[in-house]
Every structure is written in structure tokens, then in C-alpha cells.
Amino acid sequence: MDASEHMLVLDVGNTGVTAGRYRAGRVSRVRRRDTGRADAGELRAWLTPSGDAIRQAAYASVVPEVNPLWRDALAAAGFSSVLPIGPHLDLGVAVDYPRPETIGADRLANAAAAARRYEPPVVVCDFGTALTFDVILAEKGYVGGLICPGLPLMFEYLAERTALLPRIGPGRVSRVIGRSTVGAMRSGARLGARGMVREVIEAVRADLDAERLSVCATGGQASWICGDMDIEVDPHLTLRGLGIIGERNPDRFEGM
């Protein structure tokens, strides 16, 4: 594709879908919605907001059963070619992993963006339905990572498996010791996630025997957890990685 053209970048996750416009390393017009099914007209309007005239899309999906729905929606919205992200593409970073086809497409996109924006070794913390940590090294590239329960799972499980705890999400935490059930849940979730991040990062640093380790955070709750930690928050890292991979593979787009 021409570097001067915009590309739709689409990240389909277990809980939510994020889309944006990408051009030359920049992401704009980001929008989000639930992953749950919707009719074709709704998806078509969501994919092509007023004023958009984009014809190429790069997408990552970790929900295989909804892929036909989104491909149909992209075709109906007028996209002429799409690029499903996978390890067979030129990612701009090596992949040293026993079964690369089992790596989530969003994690490959994170590796592509992190390898360009940060000096390896680098760890990407992605706050989605799961909290994933991906490790990228200077010579070997993507070498693997860790997968932990994410905040949506924690909140949902607490509500589902207890009689009195409500369904909530991230929100303002004014004090460590909660003075209400909701306050206690949010404080526990935030501090617990921060502790998990610190422990994992230190364990990775020790495992690599690295004096210096770059760390960045992305995903829906990255700012809520890491906003005042010594970690750079890049909310659009995954979308940026999708665009980078699309730029590097102009001949691999599939016609619709």
C-alpha cells in the first residue's frame, strides 16, 4: 500500500473490539465496542464513520468464531482488501517460539510495535480480558511471555462466585482501605494488578539477567493500573503494530 494512504486497523478481542485509522506510524479516530454480535448495518456504520474513505484493513482476532462476521462487515463497508495478522507475515521482528501459529495475533502486533518504538529487551504488558506479558529481545525477537487473569475476569468471577459482591468495573480509588464493598473491590483489584505487574517484571528481569529492561503497557485498563508507575503507557500500541505489519506486507492483502 501507499504510505500516504490510511489503513483501517482492527483488533478483535474476547471482550471488546477496537478500531482506528493508521498512517505512517500514527493512529487516529480510535473507537471501541463490545465483541458481542450486532447486525450487519450497525457494524458497517461503526467500521466506516462519516468522512472515512479507506479501502484496506489489517486485523487481529483472538475470537475465531466471529471472524466471518467481521469479514462480511468489512466487505459490506466497502473494504476491497484485508490482511489477517499471523506469524507467516513480515513482522519486522523475528519470532523465536516453538509453535508461532499459537501466538495471539494481538501479541504479534504488540511485538511489531514494541520492537520499533522501544530498545530491546522490552516487555509489553497488555491489559485485556487476560493480562499478557510479551518479551522481545534484540537478536531473537519475540521469545514468549506470560498470561495472567485480567481485570475483567477478576471482577466477573468475584460477582459470579459470591452472593453479595456486585458486578463492577474499574473506577476511582480514593484510598487503600476501602470504606465500601465497591471501594474495597476496586482497591483490591488495582493494587493486586499493580503487584502482579511488578512481580512479573522483576522475575523477567532476573530470568534474562538484564540490567536494563524497557517496559510499556497497553490495553483497556493500562492507564488505570500503570498511570503513576514507572512504565510508559501506550494505549494504541496494538493498533500501531497492526499498521506497521500492514505497511511491511503490501502484497499480502487478500481481496474481498
Structure description:
The protein has 256 residues and is α/β, with parallel strands linked by helices. Helix content is 34%, strand content 26%. It contains seven helices and eleven strands. The chain has helices spanning 40-47, 67-76, 105-117, 151-160, 181-208, 222-226, 237-248; strands at 7-12, 16-23, 26-34, 56-61, 81-84, 122-127, 130-137, 141-149, 214-219, 232-233, 254-255. A six-stranded mixed beta sheet has the order 3-2-1-4-5-11, sandwiched between helices. Strands 8-7-6-9-10 form a five-stranded mixed beta sheet, with helices on both faces. The longest helix is centred in the C-terminal third of the chain and has 28 residues, at 181-208. The model has no long low-confidence stretch (mean pLDDT 91).
Unreliable residue runs: none
The spatial strand order of the largest sheet comes to 3-2-1-4-5-11
> How does the helix and strand content classify structurally?
alpha/beta
Helix tally? Answer: 7
What's the order of the H and E elements? EEEHEHEHEEEHHEHEHE
Oligomer: single chain
Helix fraction by DSSP (H/I, runs of at least 4):
25-40%
Query: What form results from the Cα inertia axes?
Result: globular
Radius of gyration: 19 Å
Strand content: 25-35%
Number of strands: 11
Mean pLDDT: 91
Distance between the termini: 16 Å
Q: Sheet bearing the most strands, described?
A: 6 strands, mixed
Short recap of the structure:
The chain is α/β, with parallel strands linked by helices. It contains seven helices and eleven strands.
Describe the SSE topology.
Blueprint: E1 7-12, E2 16-23, E3 26-34, H1 40-47, E4 56-61, H2 67-76, E5 81-84, H3 105-117, E6 122-127, E7 130-137, E8 141-149, H4 151-160, H5 181-208, E9 214-219, H6 222-226, E10 232-233, H7 237-248, E11 254-255
Parallel strand pairs: 1-4, 4-5, 6-9, 9-10
Antiparallel strand pairs: 1-2, 2-3, 5-11, 6-7, 7-8
